[in-house]
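User: Need the bound-state model for calcium ion:
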Amino acid sequence: MDNSLVARIFEQMGTILDIQGADGFKVRAYETAGRAIRGLTEPLARLEAEGRLDEIPGIGKSIAEKIRVLLSTGDLPAYREIVASVPPGIVRFLEIEGLGPKKVRRLWEELGLETVEALKQACQDGRVAALAGFGAKSQEKILKGIEFLDRNAGAILLGEALPVAKALLAGLRACPAVRRASLAGSIRRGKEVIGDIDLVASSDDPEAVMDAFVALPGVEETIARGPTKTSVHLEGGFQSDLRVVTDDQFTACLLYFTGSKEHNVALRALAQTRGYKINEYGVFAEGSDRPESISDEAAFFRFFGLDWVPPELRENRGEVDAAARGALPELLDPGAIRGILHCHSTWSDGKASIEQMALAARARGWEYLGISDHSKSAFYAGGLDERRLAEQASEIDALNERLEGIRLLKGSEVDILDDGSLDFDDEVLAGLDFVVASVHSKFKMSEEAMTDRIVRAVRHPLVTCLGHPTGRLLLSREPYAVDLGRVVEAAAASGCWLEINGNPRRLDLDAIWARRAAEAGVPILIGPDAHSVAGLDDTEYGVLTARRAWLGAEGVMNTRSLDELLEAIARRRNPAARGKRS
Ligand code: CA
Ligand code: CA
Ligand code: ZN
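Assistant: Bound-state model below.
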């Protein structure tokens, strides 16, 4: 039983006890335990084997005992008891924005609501609004929250799924019966939120491949198994489908299941005009049931006079046409990233020191790392005031003296205040190497006020880049209301960069807006928004999003050398040197 599953069990126990109105101390003990386990870098089984369970901060005697039971029996009677004490549906209520345990309990006890469906109905009937302490506004909000939940049902963040998918793929490729194997579906296209993990393999012995698949680490149970398709549940609540075909069929199958559906429709239409039919088994000349011999994807596209279309572009957004004209962009290569500018350290809410982050950046082959801790208004995140910012600058100077092979840049993720002014004076900002400006408060402004606020910051010459421009949190928070068209226009006119925030919960800008911004001439910065050493690797998701935005190295500022980067920042700061724009 892996750490995340154990953590989930304790978190659920805490949640249910909270709904039941249990003692706050008890609730917190489970929540703390869940968090502590998620933060571990070693498997619980090893800690238990070495008698170190009791040393985990945040885990008391009684929880440690429960972990032992879980590890040795795979089961916990206390957990089953608690889960059985409430209808399963009401635990999901907590996923609805604006509903805390106390409200959930009242909806359950006073209105007898036990499923999200019943809650939705009660909102539509006005029964929730009639409940003391709820009201029409609150009812409206719950209804909106349910709609959000419905829309995102079965959805998983790319950042959660991709590491799991890569491990599955590696496991499959290690199976001697597998000839070729690939990711497919939306995860291969790098979509920010996916439904399940699709895999395609070729083999002369599909049974052996299926045997290997269901035995891979992380597979919890087999949902369905057949000679060509097997579906499994994975730890962490994912589903994965594996399709196994002959090697002749592999390319057609991979294309078909990589999608997107819209891309496939466009390909089929093109094929039809040439007298061919495409399906998941192959390419067939009209009237023939013998497939054309096509070795791989490049050969497939070539067969129809197209350049190979990278999976990230297969969304029917002009890629088939561009491939026919030889006009596909050369997409950003992850290896072209030479440094990053958006990360946090222990000076604000990061988990690693500046030095640890610097060494990790150097180990990733980067030339520079920009430190951008929060500014003073982000007090909840340990934001720095002017004095601490100056102290931090001294530390960075000292580190730059001492460290070889990496250059640290001084920056700030400065809050954009309600009126669009910035959290530091110009004089302070001018002393920094770069400035990322972001909205972290007052999300509920009108679209017009929010757009004015952001545009004002974007026009400020000392703002290098606008951070996470829409503020969305995938699967949990809608973007704030903002007219991105106006923001892009302002950025293009003033030379401000826009971020693709690589944090897998954000991926903000998204691919569509990043593409529009880049086409308008706005420089794009990929920022992992790292709060730990591991967070630096979120750059990967930012790169995938940039690729989905049709971006090559040219449009992305992280591909610049240190000198080029500093020069670009200087040009942004000094409009006179930037040349005239009408
Ligand atoms: Ca899928
Ligand atoms: Ca699937
Ligand atoms: Zn931020």
